Here is the input.
Amino acid sequence: MPVDLGLPAVPNATRRPDTPELVDRFGRVATDLRVSLTDRCNLRCTYCMPAEGLDWLPGGDLLSDAELTRLIRIAVTALGVTDIRFTGGEPTLRRGLEGIIEATAALDPRPRISMTTNAIGLARRARSLRAAGLDRVNVSLDTLDPARFTELTRRDRFADVLAGLAAAREAGLEPVKVNTVLMRGVNDDEAVPLLRFCLAHGYRLRFIEQMPLDPQHGWDRGEMVTAEEILARLSAEYDLTPQARGAAPAERWLVDGGPGDVGVIASVTRPFCAACDRTRLTADGALRSCLFATGETDLRAPLRGGASDEELAGVWRGAMWAKAAGHGIDGGGFTQPDRPMSSIGG
Here is the structure.
C-alpha cells in the first residue's frame, strides 16, 4: 500500500511566488544543499557498487574547485541555503577539499558545514578539516566485526575507520554521527552492539533503511531491514523515548533517558518527503531535487557558457519549483534512478 506523504494530491500553486528562496509547489523550502565532490570511492561496499568499481566520471566533466565554490556561494548568498553537506563517492578523495571547505566557511552568512565519509584517512586529516571550517562528520560503518567489514566493503580498512572516528571526535568535529545500513542475513544481528558501541564512545548512531540506489538495480525490499524491525530489536534492550523530528531525515529517540540518542532514517517505509528541505548538486554539475529523481537539471553547461550568478540562481529556482511531491517508492510506478548513490551523492 502506498505511504501517505502528508502532501496535497495536486500542487497548491500554479505560479512560482516572487521569492529568492528555493520553494516548490507544495510549500517546502530547500535550505540544505548536498554537494557531491566526486563519484570515486576507496571502498567497494556490496550494496553500493560492484567489486571492480564503476566507470568514473571523466576529469573534464567534474566541476572545478572554482566552479563548485561559485555555485555554493550562489546557494548561500542568493538562494537561502543554510546547511552544506559534502558527500561522494568518498569526499576525502577530492583534491582541494580543505580549500573548498575554507571558501564555504568564509561565506556571509556562514552556513553549517558537514561531511559524510567512510573515515579512511580521516585520522590524519581531521584537524586540518576542522581548521578549514568543517563543523561535523557522518561516518559510514555497518559492522563492528573486522572480518565482516572486509567482506562487506571488499577492503581491509576496519582499523582505519575506527581511528578516523576517534580523530574526528578529538578534533572537535562533533557531533560525530555513525550511519549504518542493516541487511537481512548480513549484519542485522548488530543493531544492539552498534548502539552500545556508539553510546560508549559518544557517537550518535543513525540506522538507514537500504534504498534502491545500487548500480546493479538488484535492490530487494525483502532483504531490507525496516525501521519497525530495528526499533523492536533496540527496544528489547533499551528504553527509547521519541523526540521531535522537524525537517531532519532521522526520527530520533533518547536512549534510557539520554543524553545518548539513536535515529532511524526510514526513507522507504516512513518517507519524510512532506518535510524535505534538500537540494542536491552532483560532482558533474547536475541539480537534483530528490535523491530518487529520474531527471536532473544541468548547471554545468550554463556555468561554463558564461551565465551570470542571477541566471544560474534562476535555473536553480526553476528546478526546485518543479520538485515532485515524493519519491513514490511504495507506488507501482516507481522507477529507480539511472545514477547509483556514488554518483548522486549521499
